[in-house]
Amino acid sequence: MTPLICIVGSINEDTTLRVPALPVGGETVMATGRTRSPGGKGANQAAAAAALGARVAFVGAVGGDDAGRAALKSLDSRGIDVSRVAVADESATGAAILLIGDDGENLIVVDAGANAGLRDADVEAAFVGLAPAVTLGQLEVPVSCLVAASRASGSARGGLFLLNPAPMPDDPEGLARLAGLLPMVDILVPNRGELGRLAGRPTPSTPAEVQDCVEALDFAGALVVTLGSEGVLIRDQGEYSSVPAVPVDAIDTSGAGDVFCGVLAYRLAEGDSLAAGVRRANEAAAVSTTMPGAQVPPAFRG
User: Fold this and answer.
1) With 80 as the cut, is the pLDDT of residue 97 above it?
2) Rounded CA gap, 67 and 69, in Å?
3) Quick check: is 302 in a domain?
4) DSSP string over 82-142
5) Phi and psi of 299, rounded to 5°?
6) What is the C-alpha to C-alpha distance for residues 177 and 74, in angstroms, rounded to an integer?
7) pLDDT at 218 over 90
8) Separation of alpha carbons 233 and 226, rounded Å
9) Residue 122: exposure state from Cβ atoms within 10 A (0-12, 13-18, ≥19)
10) Which of 6, 89, 136, 186 sees the fewest Cβ atoms within 10 Å?
11) Residue 115 binned pLDDT confidence (cut-offs 50, 70, 90)
12) Full residue range of the structural domain in which residue 280 is found
């Protein structure tokens, strides 16, 4: 049977506005297009893994509204098990506004909605009877829920626990909660900005600065640092390696990191080495930037 991936994360409704260029502070720009679609970092990662053939179970929360019902229907249509998604009738489903410039760069604002109401007990109950090969989490749900997931599914039970530390907390308490989670993580997948925040340093801009941040980070597991056009840096068991970027004509970089994480989880569940999984994930993420939207279509093959 195909190994199981469990994704503990967010489900949002995305509103995407196309703009000639991303606005700066105080500037108003006119959109050239608007679309509404399913989103959320967790849902995006699940969609990418499922498109490549993964067996995926989802743990999260939606509101009791039309957006929540549409999101669950969309995930279910992809073959993703949504039976463990809590429905909070008193809450609104999470929402995100994405601004996409003509150069493919993006700005994203998220309202957590029902995602913030996911409870540790929901997560603990969801893992009863599950034995995922890989569990993947992000930070659009409470950190305590990820702690519960790691205890239920991590290396102590024979599975891998991956964390994509995004979006990074911007307050000391949030950073402290995240620091408490890190010892439970097997593979950490930050981008360069998240790596800098984790290490307590400015965003690294050179390869030497990236490696300095990695060395400064108190983390014993494997690190996979996504660097956009500069590829990916891997530190595994103290050894460094890198994977070059894949040249593409990008039109929309939103969701590329989610595709990377979803595909990496799938490849690791299938038995790939970390380096081989990163190469496949890197290729898929690059291809995803040539398509509009943060969530890849069901026919996506990377």
Assistant:
1) yes
2) 6
3) no
4) EEEEEEETTSPPEEEEEEEETTS-EEEEEE-GGGGG--HHHHHHHTTT---SEEEE-SSS-
5) -85, 0
6) 32
7) no
8) 7
9) buried
10) 89
11) very high
12) 4-22+34-288
**Which amino acid makes up residue 106?**
N
Q: Please report, for the domain that includes residue 218, its CATH number.
A: 3.40.1190.20
| Overall average pLDDT of the 124-142 stretch | 94
Per-residue b/e over 212-248, b at no fewer than 16 CB within 10 Å? ebbeebebebbbbbbbeebbbbbbbeeeeeebeeeee
Which pLDDT value is given to residue 153? 79
Are the C-beta atoms of 231 and 192 separated by less than 8 Å? no
Residue 300 domain flag:
no
pLDDT above 60 (res 156): no
Q: Is residue 27 one of the residues assigned to a domain?
A: no
The yes-or-no answer on residue 258 being catalytic is yes
Distance in angstroms (rounded) separating the CA atoms of residues 294 and 231: 20
Domain count, the chain: 1
pLDDT at 240: 96
- 192 neighbors 204 (Cβ within 8 angstroms): yes
pLDDT digits (tens, 9 = 90+) for 232-263: 999 999 999 999 999 999 988 889 999 999 99
Burial of residue 59 (number of CB atoms within 10 Å: 0-12, 13-18, 19+): buried
Asked if residue 195 is part of any domain, the answer here is yes
**Torsion, CA 225, CA 226, CA 231, CA 236, rounded to 10:** 30
Annotated catalytic residue: which of 81, 122, 252, 258? 258
**First and final CA of the chain: distance in angstroms?**
22
Determine which of 10-14, 185-189, 298-302 has the lowest per-residue pLDDT on average.
298-302
